[in-house]
Design goal:
Strands 3, 4, 5, 6, 7, 8, 9, 10, 11, 12, 14, 17 and 19 form a 13-stranded mixed β-sheet that branches. The N and C termini lie far apart (60 Å). By secondary structure, this protein is of the alpha+beta class. The protein is globular and about 65 Å long. The protein contains seven helices and 19 strands. It folds into two domains: 232 residues, Zn peptidases (Aminopeptidase), CATH 3.40.630.10; 71 residues, RNA polymerase II/Efflux pump adaptor protein, barrel-sandwich hybrid domain (OB fold (Dihydrolipoamide Acetyltransferase, E2P), Beta Barrel). Helices cover 26% and strands 31% of the residues.
């Protein structure tokens, strides 16, 4: 090959490469339809998903969609499944102001408050009209109670329309909780690897390896698990405690979300991957056997030994009903830090650190 032919070949290859990468970089996004909103490429729109409930009247789910001008992943961020968990909710409102659709690749769905009735009534765990825990009734029922109908709308309009999902939680109004995440295993290696990348990119060091979730899509129970059973990589995060609105927890949520967005190339930059994650390969929630008052004897984040007394419950006359001990040696992921104890509700959660 002559020198002139060689130069011509190099220039031609460079031209082909530039044209091909330019085409990828400038591949236009499409309109995104959610509820009755049609969000154009490069546009941000906010509105409500309507949940039809005849008995109590319709309720609504406030959402924002940022539809990037360039094609990419569709990432759903869901806060407020429990209405008293404030840092994730405040994080998404702040994120709405921080991001610009025109600078985004792909589409971002912000579900600001999934359980708006619970948020309005300042209730932990439950929906105030049917007294059901929204994060225990997925995939929901279009003809069911209010919580079941909310779950159904979230599945149809959010889970089925996204490529990946983050279910954002924190310690409810009664829970002193350290930051941690759930990595839910499906048995599908490709899907599980993607979820693992997400949880490491979110940046919280304590990570539960969760193999306990139902594999039945008709009884998925939890929002994050529902997404996984629809073959969508998903993680559940916990950042915040005792119904507080502390800046540290809010910022931790925002940084985690941005990390996952960088992982998916939705915004520029590289995610800060957790360097030394603390994997938790076994966990157990301890529930109260009676109604009364709970007295914790240790604190969130402390290590307890198997059989160690963690707290006790008294009846309403102050007499001890039962003492509660650690089922195995591990870290206290959360513990109740307010007095009311109700039969069948959690008191604390212990996680075993993987060796």
């Amino acid at each position: 090959m002559s020198k002139q032919d060689y130069i011509f070949l190099v220039v031609a290859l460079c031209l082909i490469f530039c044209l091909s990468t330019e085409g990828v970089a400038q591949e236009a996004n499409e309109s995104f339809m959610i509820g009755d909103m049609n969000v154009l490429p490069g546009e941000m729109r906010s509105g409500y998903l309507t949940v039809k409930v005849e008995e109590e009247g319709d309720c609504f789910i406030p959402i924002t969609v940022l539809n990037g001008a360039v094609k990419g992943k569709t990432l759903a961020l869901v806060a407020g499944v429990h209405g008293y968990e404030y840092p994730p909710i405040l994080s998404l409102y702040r994120l709405k102001k921080l991001l610009k659709s025109k600078d985004l690749s792909g589409t971002l769905i912000l579900v600001h408050v999934a359980n708006l009735p619970g948020f309005q009534k300042r209730i932990i765990y439950y929906n105030p009209y049917d007294w059901k825990n929204l994060n225990r009734v997925f995939p929901g029922n279009p003809e069911g109670s209010q919580a079941e109908r909310i779950a159904f709308v979230l599945v149809e309009e959010v889970v089925k329309k996204c490529d990946a999902l983050i279910d954002l939680h924190c310690g409810d109004g009664n829970e002193a909780l350290i930051p941690y995440c759930y990595w839910m295993l499906s048995g599908n290696k490709k899907l599980d690897d993607l979820s693992k990348q997400m949880v490491l990119a979110f940046g919280i060091k304590h990570i539960i390896i969760d193999e306990t979730r139902s594999k039945d899509v008709t009884a998925s129970k939890y929002l994050g698990n529902t997404a996984v059973l629809h073959s969508k990589p998903a993680i559940t995060t916990e950042s915040g405690y005792l119904g507080n609105t502390d800046e540290e927890s809010i910022v931790r949520n925002i940084q985690g979300i941005l990390g996952v967005m960088r992982l998916f190339r939705m915004i520029p930059g590289e995610p800060k991957i957790v360097k030394e994650p603390i994997w938790i390969d076994k966990y157990e929630v301890i529930y109260s056997d009676c109604d009364g008052l709970f007295y914790p004897l240790t604190e969130m984040g402390y290590y307890v030994k198997e059989g160690e007394k963690v707290g006790y419950v008294t009846d309403y006359l102050g007499e001890i009903c039962r003492e509660y001990r650690a089922p195995f040696t591990g870290i206290l992921l959360y513990i109740l830090n307010t007095p009311p104890a109700n039969k069948g509700e959690p008191l604390f959660e212990v996680g075993q650190v993987k060796k």
